[in-house]
Design a protein that fits this description.
Layout (H helix, E strand, L loop, with lengths): L1 E2 L6 H11 L4 E9 L7 E8 L3 E5 L9 H9 L4 E4 L3 H11 L6 E3 H7 L8 H9 L19 H28 L6 H8 L22 H21 L3 H4 L2 H9 L22 H11 L20 H22 L3 H4 L2 H8 L11 H15 L3 E6 L2 E6 L6
Parallel strand pairs: 1-4, 2-5, 5-6
Antiparallel strand pairs: 2-3, 3-4, 7-8
Length: 392
Amino acid sequence: MHIHGLIEDSASLANLCTRLAQQPFITVDTEFMRENTFWPELCLIQIADTNEAAAIDPMADGIDLAPLLDLLVNNEEVLKVFHAGGQDIEIVYNLTGKTPHPLFDTQVAAMALGQGEQIGYSNLVETYLGITVDKGARFTDWSRRPLDKRQIDYAIADVTHLSEIFPKMLEKLRKTGRGGWLDEEMERIADPENYRNDPDKAWQRIRVSSRKADVLGRLKALAAWREKEAQGKNLPRGRIVKDETIADLAANPPRKQGDLTRVRGLSASWGGNDIGGRLMAALEGATAMSASEMPARDDRKLPLGKEGALVADLLKLLLKIRSRDINVAARLLARSDDLEALAAGQRDGLSILEGWRFEQFGRDALALVEGQLGFTVRNGKLKMTRTEQPQE
């Protein structure tokens, strides 16, 4: 494989992208900094196919990233391969308003191959290639220039290794017939809604116990205000106000700005400064959440009661047995809230009762709650056993 030097000019990048656009797949990774900012600061982009690999400097003066971004989000003929690519995809979305597509995430694929629920990149490389990844440059400040050869080599290795791993992983998926299991997961990862920063929806990320319309209305207003402040100042949300303080202000709103001096988590200066004034303006402009906006009461979160909790525990045991028997990560088969919903009597809208999940697990789960499946121990190993008729 040919490893290019650091690409810092538009012509070299455009030529590289023209060649990569002819390949069936490319592997992609990014290096970024976000500890002190709202928006992740893109510092390096690594990309490879089976023939060549390069690191691209997006911070280089005058470089035009358009050919690369076009390849990532508009070329439907080239599969984009990531490992645990959520943050990389977010960066591309922030730049383009689109997500890479089609895409493949090797961490998710590893779940279908029984290699753990969140296998790390280093472990993946060791499993497939027998190589120990050099982690010496992982704490690099990628925003500092110049980058030395060791740093660039470390970064490029992420995509060169991945370009070797992906075909091996794909062959395993073909042999096991599990490639189709991943289609839904990959489309979910590629959904742009996962990466959109809509201030009016920011409240949904904050935990609050109240279901009162006035409290939720204030929560929505405060969360939107904080989102705009954080974006405008390019600071992490928590640097503006922490979640728990937002929730407390929504539940116990101060009557006047001076009362902010007594709010835990806020600087006393907010009692008289501009940012405190903007916070109070957001509170004063809040209206009770409309019925159409109120979060639906999720039956999955309702108390199951003692019997329902026992049924949920049995379903979780069944999940462990089934995931062991077919060698797939339990998390890919079913989520805990789906099991609890099934135990509570819900049948509609559960992913475990649809498609491949139903074939591999849901049918047995349904049989268990309906008394047509039980457990037995054979030769010291826990097994499932079917009954002729539902148990009374």
